[in-house]
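Lab manual, section 2.4: Encoding a predicted structure.

Procedure: take the sequence of the chain (320 residues), apply the prediction step described in section 2.3, and record the output as structure tokens. A sample record is shown.
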Amino acid sequence: MRHSPRTLARRPGSAGRWFSVAAACSPYGEFTVRYGLVIVPNDDVQDPAELARMAEQRGFDCLLFPEHTHIPASCETPFPLGGELPHYFRRGYDPFISVAAAVGATERILLGTGVCLIVQRDPIITAKEVATLDRLSGGRFLLGIGAGWNLEEMRNHGTDPSRRFGFMRDRVAAMKAIWSQDEASYSGRHVAFERIWCWPKPVQQPHPPVLVGGNGPHVLDRVLAYGDEWSPNPMPVEELAERMSELRRRTDELGRPPIPVTVLGCPPEPALVEQLAALGVERVIFWLPSTSRDEVERTFEDYMAFLRRPGLAEPVVSAS
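Recorded output:
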């Protein structure tokens, strides 16, 4: 089986359920796939602590929370998935406070953002929040980041959408300096500070994994520049195969270890999951509904039935 040495070494306490998927058509052999969940938490569903307990009890690898500080009422920017923006995006809880609630209710499941809109955030405050949550969770934090899609939301935070990727690069680099230096300094185009003390430092070294989200034409450049994993949204399998091949080629040229791939928001379709496993995708994240407590319960049961399908996924590791 092929794993990322960095990923396995960093998370000795992970309790995620691992599944073997035979990939006879793949030149890479047999892979393990980890399954996680993402949900927009709000007051229509179970609170983040209860959601996290439910996911941990069922053996899921991780639970992620998205971020929108607000939704501009003008709704000028089209929703990327088409149609109207679901109402629950307007009412979602803060992801970092949600993770904090989930940390206190769990022991092993990984918790994080899927994704944090870092271009709308102060990097010093965010670095402290991430490090604090990583400390309080015993090294269970995953930092999924993205540049966002809602242009009016960015502007309300004083971020020029045309420069958002530059903001993302600088803010991630600044946070890495804070996490790794006792007396941190950083000088970039969009972020600059000299000789600051900022504790705590993260448990995970050199820092919690940074999962770079996005499907755009230059996303692999960003992954290679400051990411630890790539977290695309679903795309045609053929396209994903080409881009993962390019990512492997470029990491080999740089002498870097393989970069894991996490597909965020994957439909629970057996044939698709088998194809992703054959490509070497290491983690698949399913959406939980944000509409009602009953619907969350039903979806959990549907996912567990899906994961028990004969020939799709058989548990091979359950770390304690």
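Check your result against the sample. The longest strand covers residues 31-38.
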